[in-house]
TrEMBL record, chain A:
The active site is at C219 (glycyl thioester intermediate). It comes from Musca domestica. It catalyses: ATP + [NEDD8 protein] + [E1 NEDD8-activating enzyme]-L-cysteine = AMP + diphosphate + [E1 NEDD8-activating enzyme]-S-[NEDD8 protein]-yl-L-cysteine. Pfam families: E2_bind (PF08825), ThiF (PF00899). The keyword Disulfide bond does not apply. It is an enzyme of class 6 (ligase). GO terms for molecular function: ATP binding; NEDD8 activating enzyme activity. InterPro entries: E2-binding, ThiF/MoeB/HesA, ThiF_NAD_FAD-bd, Ub_act_enz_dom_a_sf, Uba3_N, Ubiquitin-activating_enz, UBQ-activ_enz_E1_Cys_AS. This is NEDD8-activating enzyme E1 catalytic subunit. GO terms for biological process: protein neddylation. Belongs to the ubiquitin-activating E1 family. UBA3 subfamily.
From TrEMBL, chain B:
This is E2 NEDD8-conjugating enzyme. PROSITE patterns: UBC_1, UBC_2. The active site is at C111 (glycyl thioester intermediate). Residues 29-173 form the UBC core domain. It is an enzyme of class 2 (transferase). Pfam families: UQ_con (PF00179). Pathway: Protein modification; protein neddylation. Transmembrane segments: none annotated. Signal peptide: none annotated.
Length: 451, 183
């Protein structure tokens, strides 16, 4: 037995509780990964060292926290910016009626911490964008139970920007990889996937797999409505702006707004002999709600938690790499290897180094000349932007007159004067490459002079 | 993937000491994509683009001055708002100029299929520019947003032409007053 464990600990390997886990983690088997070493250390790692981040404490998040905590993971963080609503309680089982209005992250953490003493959950009632790279770097694995594509793209971009590359062959340094397990559900459909940023297909590689938003033709909505949804969209898109009843934009969480839309939509539906406009449908259409199904969440979360377990312990190969699940009629699942896109804006965009002799004498115009003349680039009309102090900045773009006129003055400034530092990343779009590419400025010798 | 976690632990210890400089914030994928779209725009000579803030490539205006058709001589301004989910979602486009047009209503909503139901991530800002330009060359009475204008176009082309030029000069057409939008 591991000598580091205190015998009194509830985490004790001797506890009957971990009997089944130890069967898996302390015995070799024909399906184990090559680097798997059967040992009590595996469970010990899970309980005391491995640090997991769960993003989202909603339908999937509650399931994930429960699954991971019961599996033996001892250090879990959870992020969610939302508060608990009545309609969550049918499936988000870590919450009770008294919790309505409280933070999802905090209530979920309290519940798990009380119920499963071997696990400590740290809550963060915040947006994922509130944290920086140093926060995300502390985790071994990140699991997402999100309902937003924007949020998935953001965390995906964050994990890719933390990657380090081997300077000689451009390969990814494996120690800079934080695996991301992503679960998603919509009604009776769901998917689970394993993303090893830089190695396997990322969110941006497969962006077209996300179902498009349902959008009805505007003219149908305006003139020939046939569905209750058409009537609701009419009020939302056209009538709201026209009448501006509350002097603000439509807020799907404001019951007064929903009630107003409901009344007007009902009027319009009556006018066109359409039935089926209800308050709940109005809510659903305005907020793009697809009814959540508890069993789908359970299946997808279980698949995700299993992947976390496999990655953390190496006891079995990871799923490769995208599983679809659908139980509308019977049960259908299919797992396939989503391919990494060669033109992915996120994970194939490995910053290429541009050497600059002296940032104090090299102007932006000189840099553009380098991009056009250097045999490595041979660009035609590069448009260049960067991010300085967290803000986007357009350095030069010749193709749009109004931008050209206002960025022309930058051409004669030196890179130092423009605030570009050694190691600065610049984004360059040009007709010679299918995507905007990222270049990294490397100053040889001379530092930027301070004034 | 071999020994990912043992390496990972090493990295963490190294991280706290070695990796001090906070990495700069990177441009989002949406940002990189819009930069490509805009850098590659070849605008037809009837179109111009205005960026109120050249550092903000997500908000801009398109000005169309048709040189043929019903709307020749007019100047029409469209406002583009590109969201963080571009190109998964289409940009939001509104017409800021009041126009007597079957496919544009008086609030500036535009009925163009690729802005809504037929949007697709392979489309670009350029596709929308050409789509909008086409609306001025071939107003489509089959998919009306301004039903009155569509009815007139379908029943009496001459009257429609007359109404358009009246509206562009700054006049009432029926109950609605249109501001002058001649170049």
């Amino acid at each position: 037995m591991s000598s580091t464990m205190s015998p009194a600990s509830t985490n004790s390997l001797n506890s009957k509780r971990w009997h089944s886990m130890r069967h898996i983690l302390e015995r070799a088997g024909p399906f184990c990964k090559a680097d798997f070493a059967p040992s009590p250390d595996n469970l010990e790692f899970l309980q005391n060292t491995c640090k997991i981040l769960v993003i989202g404490a909603g339908g999937l998040g509650c399931e994930l926290l429960k699954d991971l905590a019961l599996m033996g993971f001892g250090d879990i963080h959870v992020i969610d910016m939302d508060t608990i609503e009545l309609s969550n309680l049918n499936r988000q089982f870590l919450f009770r009626r008294n919790d309505i209005g409280s933070s999802k992250a905090e209530c979920a953490a309290n519940f798990i911490n009380k119920r499963i003493p071997t696990c400590h959950v740290t809550p963060h009632c915040a947006k994922i964008q509130d944290f920086d790279e140093s926060f995300y770097q502390q985790f071994h694995i990140i699991v997402c139970g999100l309902d937003s594509i924007v949020a998935r793209r953001w965390i995906n971009g964050m994990l890719i920007s933390s990657l380090r590359y081997n300077e000689e062959d451009g390969s990814v340094d494996p120690s800079s990889i934080t695996p991301m397990i992503d679960g998603g559900t919509e009604g009776f459909k769901g998917n689970a996937r394993v993303i090893l940023p830089g190695l396997t297909a990322c969110i941006e590689c497969t962006l077209d797999l996300f179902p498009p938003q349902v959008n009805y033709p505007l003219c149908t909505i305006a003139n020939t409505p046939r569905l209750p949804e058409h009537c609701i969209e009419y009020v939302k898109i056209i009538q709201w702006d026209k009448e501006n009843p509350f002097n603000c934009s439509l807020d799907g969480d404001d019951p007064q707004h929903i009630a107003w839309v409901y009344e007007r939509a009902l009027e319009r539906a009556t006018q066109y002999n359409i039935t089926g406009v209800t308050y709940r449908l109005v809510q659903g259409v305005i907020k793009h709600i697809i009814p959540a199904v508890a069993s789908t969440n359970a299946v997808i979360a279980a698949a995700c938690a299993t992947e976390v377990f496999k990655l953390a312990t190496s006891c079995y190969d990871s799923m490769c790499n995208y599983m679809n699940f659908n139980d509308i009629d019977g049960i259908y699942t299919y797992t396939y290897a989503a391919e990494k896109s060669e033109n992915c804006l996120a994970c194939s965009n490995i910053p290429q180094v541009v050497n600059i002799e002296d940032p104090n004498t090299t102007t932006l115009e000189d840099l553009i000349k380098i991009l056009c003349e250097n045999p490595r680039f041979q660009m035609k009309q590069p448009g260049i932007t960067t991010v300085i102090d967290g803000k986007n900045k357009t350095l030069y773009m010749s193709t749009v007159k109004s931008i050209e006129e206002r960025t022309r003055a930058n051409l004669t400034q030196s890179l130092g004067e423009l605030g570009l530092k050694d190691g600065q990343q610049i984004n360059v779009a040009d007709q010679t490459s299918p995507n905007t590419i990222v270049l990294q400025l490397k100053y040889n010798g001379n530092e930027v002079e301070m004034d | 993937m071999i020994k990912l976690f043992s390496l990972k632990q090493q990295k963490k210890e190294g991280d706290q000491t070695g990796r001090s400089g906070a990495q700069q914030k990177k441009a989002s994928a949406a940002q990189l994509r819009i930069q490509k779209d805009i850098n590659e725009l070849t605008l037809p000579k009837t179109c111009a683009m205005e960026f109120p803030d050249p550092d903000d490539l997500l908000n801009f205006k398109l000005i169309i001055c048709p040189d043929e058709g019903f709307y020749k001589g007019g100047r029409f301004v469209f406002n583009f708002r590109v969201g963080p989910n571009y190109p998964h979602e289409a940009p939001k486009v509104k017409c800021e100029t009041q126009v007597y047009h079957p496919n544009i209503d008086l609030e500036g909503n535009v009925c163009l299929n690729i802005l809504r139901e037929d949007w697709n991530p392979v489309l670009t800002i350029s596709s929308i520019v050409y789509g909008l330009q086409y609306l001025f060359l071939e107003p489509n009475p089959e998919d009306p947003l301004n039903k009155e204008a569509a009815d007139v176009l379908q029943t009496n082309r001459r009257l429609f032409e007359h109404n358009v030029s009246k509206a562009m000069r700054g006049n009432f057409v029926g109950e609605t007053y249109f501001e002058c939008c001649l170049k």
